[in-house]
Amino acid sequence: MILSSIFDTFQLHSVPYVFYPNAIANGLRKNMTRIEIRNSLVLTMMLLMTSWLALIPLAPEVEAGGTNQTTSGTLTGTETWSGSHTLTGDVEVAEGAQLIINAGTTINVPIGKKIVVKGSMCAGDASCGATQAGTGSPVRFIWPTATPVPNATGGCYDPGNGLLNSDLNCGEAIVFESTIDQALTSLSHVTIDGAYGTPVEIPSRSYTAYGAMIFDGAAFSADHLTFANINTSNIVAFNLAAPHLSDSTFVIGNDEQEWDAAAVRAFDAGTGILSTFVIENSAFTGDQTADCGNNGGGRAILTADNSYVDMKTLSITQNSYGLFLKDTSGQLTNSQINVKCNGIDTNGHKTTGEISHILRVHNNSIITEEGAPLTAYDGAIVIANDNTMSGASEGSGMGIRDSYVEAHRNVIGPITGWNGMWIYGESDVVAENNSFEGAAKETILIGEYHHMDQGWNVPAPTKARIYFANNIIRNNTGTDCQGTTIYGGQFNCPAIHVFMSSGTFIDNTVVDNAGDGMRITGGIVNAQGNDIMVGEFGARISDYDDNYGTKSASIAYFRENTWTNATQIYNVSESRVAVQSEHIPNPGGGELYPVMLSWSGAECPYVQDECLQVPLTAEWKPAGMP
User: Fold this and answer.
1) How many degrees, rounded to 5, is the angle at CA 93 between CA 153 and CA 251?
2) Count of CB atoms within 10 A of residue 434's CB?
3) Of 182, 237, 341, 475, which has the highest C-beta tally within 10 A?
């Protein structure tokens, strides 16, 4: 103001510089000289003032700090929300801007509106500038429920672009984009209440997902999140997003118009094993009223697709399904899963170029009412160690199809539905130091002998292999195994059933077994050092005849095995068997011989259809086979 006044004063007293013609009288020259002197002084002062002004710093082109200023539109600069703050429309936190939300703040968001963060949001976390929130002073985002209006549609309805969700609340969410300032973005003790979710396009899937909190390539930490009354997903993370979520509570979507979804969904999340999508110390609850199966209406509560994940110390309860992990690597550890249908479904595996990545499932307790505690399907690569699995009134402990699985030190059972391990398709399995307890059918079934039975949808025999060592099988007491086409009806369930597959069985212990110790049909087996208590035959070994001109013989090698309570040790039909260094006890149960060899068909080569062939599984011969 002082400089401005000085400048104004000189302007008022200055006179413009004028050139006069030569015809002007000499008397005017004195006045001209005075004018020139005065103008020179003015110019000098203007130069001085320009120098002084250059020393004054200019203000940055951002808004000054304020509190509860932005209610809609774009937020620039730095702003703090505190107390109770009501929005009137969508809010965007621009790149370079910072929104700070203090502990105990309640943000009321209008129906169908969202907050998009491109800069930074610090909510309830003292480490990035907010006052620290807690259980008694959370940051709350609240959306009201719209009153239904006949024929009215919400902001998501766009049939021209394939968006058919007409709900008036659709569009409600907080969206974090990849441009956020990770150093200044954090959430602590934040509650999301009543958000419907907003649609986001998943580029790699041509698929639209809905979520109440969206991580679009964003990576930052959030703790003690709570979600309530969410129609769709709580979290959707995609486009290499790698958030770290901890100590949070998630619920499955509750939409009644079939837009409900898993509580957390990840698509192409994480950038590698050093930058994963992390969820830890968190609880998931859902809806257990839906049934299992394709038409049952049940949903997984947590899904990941083509992602790198690190999930630990989770509690997943009161839901139909647990986790569905497709083409995903990383780990799930130290978690408690208690659901109605399958506990952990894995499908395929994550690849980077020519590198195949592993999914590790360790130290979990998995209890199911009906489904399988763990499945590995269609190219999954899974290592499952130190888990406990039980339940499965309509399933098996582990279901493995066309996959590679290693299982160590697990406790599997009681399984009240089917098998301890159900292995079929082109699968390769290693199982060591596990304990199997009380399977309703065969404890180990590799190869699916029901493929020709009515009502079964399982593949025809192919190569498969298991390495099974130092395991314990107890209480294999099933008496109602059924194979109508292959075996002609019902039979007592063997502890180990190998059908058109390869198997190595080393130093295993079987006790309290109602059926055969081993039933081998068209298989290749290496069995050494096992101690097996049986109810019928020690090993029942036969060929597989497909009744279309192909008979596949079994090939087996037995060494130093101990058989207890067997009515007959070896019952061999149209197969090749070698036995070495074993004590063969006397027969029992009305059998005349401890070893029985038989050939029930016509003689080869005179009847070509009776000639035996090596089974397909010979491509994967058993480990250690002589």
Assistant:
1) 55
2) 27
3) 237
